Amino acid sequence: MTQTHAGFVALIGEPNAGKSTLLNQMVGAKVSIVTHKVQTTRARIRGIAMYGDAQIVFVDTPGIFRPRRRLDRSMVKAAWGGAADADVILLLIEAHRGLTDGAKAIIEQLREHSGKTPVALVINKIDRVKADRLLALSQQVNEIYEFKATFMISAEKGYGCEDLLDWLAAEVPESPWLYPEDQVADLPMRMIAAEITREKLTLRLHEEIPYQLTVETEKWEEKKDGSARVDQIVYVARPGHKGIVLGKGGETIKAVGQAARAELAEFMGRPVHLFLQVKVRENWLDEAERYNEMGLDFKDGDA
């Protein structure tokens, strides 16, 4: 009988380093939201890649940064928690940004959190710089931390991703598979649906509002015709934000709903009827229940 392998791989790095894009590329399905905005991954989203006899479970942690608010602190604690629980850690660095102060700070913390867990360096977005600069960056980063392996990839275009999968499949421990073979994520569909809607809002709204809103799937109803009715609430922190999210004549929230419904229907492979409401909840950033919905620990945000 063929011996199977399975394990958890934590993706860490600065905000916007491409962790969510890499997760989606590896899994072959969209399970983590990807936007031009930094700091969009709130919960530890697990995406599952089947590769040969290996099941590789990716933990997409929030980008590690200097936290200011309770939500920020909870997200950073979740990121390091994801790394501590993993069988392998991948540190993503953007090729064109190089070894930033933020990346150096993460490497310093790796010394404390990684223990004996193998850590690989993944230099992402290699299509943005020339080869000599890439080699210099790889050498520079490897001089300050002893990585087990180094990979140069473009998560968006898929360059180098197969080599990384080959290495991970051999690196995760011998184990029975942890999830059913056809499962791509361990998040409930209610949360995936909320994340999809939040992505569309983040893409649509270019102010700071995306960090002051959250989306919850309030109701999920399976219809006899095979479709699903999904009712969601968009919570905003201030009354003035509600009008911006709704847009003139409701055009913004309508466009967001159409885009989210189309993507959710494609993800599920069946029709979806999506209904959105926008409500003001001024203190949602300080409510433990909202953090639980996002897979974060409210107490981790204590200063």
UniProtKB/TrEMBL annotation:
Q: Which residues form the signal peptide?
A: none
The chain positions of domain Era-type G read 5-174
Q: Where is this region: G5?
A: 153-155
Q: What is its main location?
A: cytoplasm
Chain intervals for the UniProt region annotation (G1): 13-20
Q: Does the keyword Chloroplast apply?
A: no
Role noted for this protein: An essential GTPase that binds both GDP and GTP, with rapid nucleotide exchange. Plays a role in 16S rRNA processing and 30S ribosomal subunit biogenesis and possibly also in cell cycle regulation and energy metabolism.
Protein family (similarity comment): Belongs to the TRAFAC class TrmE-Era-EngA-EngB-Septin-like GTPase superfamily. Era GTPase family.
Give the NCBIfam families listed for this entry.
era, PRK00089.1, small_GTP
Q: What's the protein here called?
A: GTPase Era
The organism named in the record is: Paracoccus sulfuroxidans
